[in-house]
Write a structure and sequence with these properties.
alpha/beta; three-stranded mixed beta sheet; 7 helices; binds arginine
Length: 272
């Protein structure tokens, strides 16, 4: 199987103010020290990787007091140039929604202020014609309906059941959106039985990722259609990617994992 890279446009937020001062997912421990300079270096490596591949990276100004703002994927959902704002579940992150929405409005995008709780592309993953949408921990299913009405896309609700995989992008990765050879990867145990059945029906050839690789947030991977940024510890998944025609590229985001996120969390694709 031959896979094709396509040029991407990403929005990122430098982790200038990164630390773990509150705990809103099982990965976060405010007693464990964070090394902000190391987080910045790892993030710079990720950004430079995208630039070396010819992708465009835009930046939003990090705000003091919002340590999780580095996880740009949560900032909004962007489909066909339409921006559906994030509305965070936890008060600690709520100010991020308007900041990201303003960035898009200033850049000339049509934005809609969400009425329903949703955490952007942490839970909403564009996969070809449909949007795969997580719920169970953060995003309300009512937001799936709101997003469907706003974009006119089919939104497929998937229920997450393990608190370590609290956002869809910690349990499922979109690898190839080409309708001729679509491909996703996921960790089945992160989903309810009904959602596992739905994924198996829609994507019978999907890569099923082991508990061990998923536990390193291996599924928090970013694909440009062929090249895939993946956590270096997820070695089994890297092998599965190669076998399916992808090129895995390990990028270490261990410091950002202390907040419960990896490469994909730090990357919001701007689909104009
Ligand atoms: N500390 C953040 C939170 O719990 C991490 C967000 C990770 N982002 C993601 N796209 N999964 O909200």
């Amino acid at each position: 199987m031959s896979r094709t890279s396509t040029p991407r446009r990403y929005l990122m937020c430098r982790p200038t103010h990164f630390e773990v001062t509150y705990e809103i997912n099982p990965w976060m421990n405010s007693q464990v020290a964070t090394d902000t300079a190391l987080a910045v270096r790892q993030w710079e490596t990720l950004r430079e990787t995208y630039l070396a591949w010819g992708h465009t990276v835009e930046l939003i100004e990090p705000a003091p007091g919002l340590p999780d703002m580095v996880y740009a994927a949560n900032g909004a959902t962007v489909v066909d140039g339409l921006v559906y704002s994030a509305r965070f579940r936890h008060p600690e992150r709520q100010p991020e929604g308007p900041l990201y929405q303003k960035w898009f409005a200033d850049a000339g995008f049509v934005t809609q202020t969400a009425a329903e709780v949703n955490e952007g592309e942490g839970d909403m993953l564009v996969m070809g014609d449909v949007i795969l949408a997580g719920t169970g921990f953060r995003t309300d299913p009512a937001a799936h309906r709101e997003l469907a009405a706003f974009t006119g896309r089919e939104v497929v609700t998937l229920e997450l059941v393990n608190p370590r995989f609290y956002h869809l992008d910690t349990a499922l990765a979109v690898l190839d959106e080409d309708p001729a050879h679509p491909m996703i990867a996921y960790h089945p145990d992160a989903f309810s039985p009904a959602s596992q059945a739905e994924l198996a029906r829609r994507y019978p050839d999907a890569i099923r990722v082991s508990a061990e690789d998923a536990a390193h947030l291996g599924l928090n991977a970013v694909s440009d259609g062929r090249r895939v940024v993946v956590a270096p510890q997820a070695t089994g998944f890297a092998e599965q990617l190669r076998a399916a025609g992808f090129e895995p590229h390990p990028v270490d985001t261990s410091e950002l994992l202390k907040g419960g996120g990896g490469a994909k969390c730090c990357t919001l694709e701007v689909r104009a």
